[in-house]
């Protein structure tokens, strides 16, 4: 029986990054994956394919609606959806192939099949051909991720009631797409199909979209998406979904009123749930919490010696980059180093246009925690580069601790918010203040100057602002 220092079950961003770090540190490592390709949800049916479609559909939207403002005349713009989907698949293939190459470079053994922990220190891998291989491991990391949550009255049928997986591969834009849940998935995939011609209606249970993000910016995003043609019904609870001849009728209640919605496809995006079926964690006595997440300590150790868990299968935001950091910290702990993750600085992004990004505390969260804060805001309509780009929607907002000026949170709504938020995250990781950021020289003309200006605005000294 082959013996490893570390066996990682699951090859998503948590698992495969942990494998790379283990290889770098000279640990004899194996990674077990049940799917054909490495990379997990993120690379195969999540972050990457959705960003490919978001970019393609954003270009289409630009050609249709924005190019004219730049004096570019495009007479007829049409979509070749097949080609768009093929490009997305090619991007995915390049990256999953890249992960395979990274495993080789780092001398990580890839085992194809379902990994089951049969006893502490022992993993059996059952391949799709039905062959079973047993391996021994000093340390086992469970990195099996999450799957889409279903509504009890609307089980996925893969045709009319679908999850994000199918909504990444519709062969034509549905005439009417109903989206249940206004979180990252609903807003991103709703945007894709709205841009490609679907009439998109979003039903959300809460009185707001994008829970967890700054409320003011989330409201601005809702206004922008409404302007792009999406319809929102907030405080709307779906209670039934009927399918007849491939069409759906949803019944929902909104403020005591009963509403019905007709649709050709329904995307259920009401969250994801941890996935650890078949791993055998329960059989060896690993403890789970009330949300069926594996319980771990600050070093990702479960209650069973030598068994660890990281990523979506444990508590915390279900984000690829959070899983990656946990994977690295977990391996470093195993290797006798002091790995840790700073959960106060995990950025979150919704890749709509404009993009909504946030890191750290929102103004409301700081208030709930009784922290006195000062707020600095700067709108992109006062930023030269944003105006030159014809992309002046949105703003930057800083939340700084009143007593120390330390930045506790940063929130950005802008076409390039996903890139801009990284600066704020870096400054926060170093415990920086709004003054530190405001005194840093930023290139001109760039969108990042708005980040500096918002930092200066904490002290009410933003430069390019009239009517302060
Ligand atoms: P989510 O948890 O972000 O949002 C789900 C929304 O559905 C919530 O606003 C909730 O109030 C609403 N909801 C729940 N039940 C409902 C009902 N019966 N009727 C109407 N509304 C209902 O979930 P989502 O968008 O499915 O994403 C799942 C996970 O994947 C999240 O943790 C998310 O952060 C992550 N993700 C992150 C992305 C990113 O970083 N860009 C992209 C896609 C997913």
**Uncertain stretches:** none
**Shape summary:** globular
Bound small molecules, by name, code or SMILES, are: 1,4-dihydronicotinamide adenine dinucleotide
Query: Counting H and I runs of at least 4 residues, what is the number of helices?
Result: 13
Determine the strand fraction and express it as a percent band: 25-35%
Quaternary state, please?
A: single chain
Query: How confident overall, as mean pLDDT?
Result: 97
- Over the alpha carbons, how many angstroms does the gyration radius reach? 24 Å
Distance between the termini: 71 Å
Q: How many beta-strand segments?
A: 22
Secondary structure class reads alpha/beta
Tell me the major beta sheet. Answer: 7 strands, mixed
Please estimate the helix content: 25-40%
Task: Give a verbal description of the structure.
The chain has 468 residues and is α/β, with parallel strands linked by helices. It is 31% helix and 26% strand. The strands form five sheets. Strands 1, 2, 3, 4, 5, 6 and 17 form a seven-stranded mixed sheet that branches. Strands 8-15-9-10-11 form a five-stranded parallel sheet. Strand 18 and strand 19 (355-360) form a beta hairpin. The longest helix is centred in the first third of the chain and has 25 residues, at 81-105. The model has no long low-confidence stretch (mean pLDDT 97). The protein binds 1,4-dihydronicotinamide adenine dinucleotide. 1,4-dihydronicotinamide adenine dinucleotide binds next to helix 6, strand 12 and strand 18.
């Amino acid at each position: 029986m082959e013996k490893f220092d570390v066996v990682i079950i699951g090859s998503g961003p948590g698992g495969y990054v942990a494998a790379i770090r283990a290889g770098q540190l000279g640990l004899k490592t194996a990674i077990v994956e049940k799917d054909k390709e490495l990379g997990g949800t993120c690379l195969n049916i999540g972050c990457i394919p959705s960003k490919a479609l978001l970019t393609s559909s954003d270009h289409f939207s630009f050609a249709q609606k924005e190019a004219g403002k730049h004096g570019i005349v495009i007479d007829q713009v049409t979509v070749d959806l097949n080609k768009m989907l093929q490009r997305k698949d090619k991007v995915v293939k390049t990256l999953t192939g890249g992960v395979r190459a990274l495993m080789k470079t780092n001398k990580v053994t890839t085992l194809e099949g379902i990994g089951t922990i049969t006893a502490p220190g022992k993993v059996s891998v059952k391949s799709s051909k039905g062959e079973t291989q047993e391996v021994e491991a000093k340390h086992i990391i469970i990195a099996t991720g999450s799957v889409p949550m279903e509504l009890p009255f609307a089980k996925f049928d893969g045709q009319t009631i679908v999850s994000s997986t199918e909504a990444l591969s519709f062969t034509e834009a549905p005439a009417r797409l109903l989206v249940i849940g206004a979180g990252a998935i609903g807003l991103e995939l709703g945007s894709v199909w709205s841009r490609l011609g679907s009439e998109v209606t979003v039903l959300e249970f809460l009185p707001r979209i994008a829970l967890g993000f700054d409320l003011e910016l989330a409201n601005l995003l809702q206004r922008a998406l409404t302007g792009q043609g999406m319809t929102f019904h907030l405080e709307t609870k779906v209670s039934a979904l009927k399918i007849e001849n491939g069409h759906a009728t949803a019944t929902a209640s909104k403020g005591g009123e009963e509403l019905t919605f007709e649709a050709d496809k329904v995307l259920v995006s009401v969250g994801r749930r941890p996935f650890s079926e078949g791993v055998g964690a329960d059989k060896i006595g690993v403890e789970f919490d009330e949300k069926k997440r594996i319980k771990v300590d600050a070093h990702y150790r479960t209650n069973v010696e030598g068994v660890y868990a990281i990523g979506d299968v444990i508590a915390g935001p279900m984000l690829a980059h959070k899983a990656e950091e946990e994977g690295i910290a977990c391996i470093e702990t195993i290797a006798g180093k002091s790995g840790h993750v700073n959960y106060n600085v995990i950025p979150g992004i919704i890749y709509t246009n404009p993009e909504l990004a946030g890191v750290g505390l929102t103004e409301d969260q700081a208030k709930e925690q009784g922290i006195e804060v000062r707020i600095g805001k700067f709108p992109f309509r006062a930023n030269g580069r944003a105006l030159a780009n014809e992309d002046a929607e949105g703003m930057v907002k800083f939340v700084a601790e009143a007593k120390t000026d330390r930045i506790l949170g940063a929130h950005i709504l802008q076409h390039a918010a996903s890139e801009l938020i990284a600066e704020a995250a870096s400054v926060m990781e170093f415990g920086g203040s709004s003054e530190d950021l405001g005194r840093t020289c930023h290139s001109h003309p760039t969108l990042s100057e708005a980040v500096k200006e918002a930092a200066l605005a904490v002290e009410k000294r933003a430069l390019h602002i009239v009517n302060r």
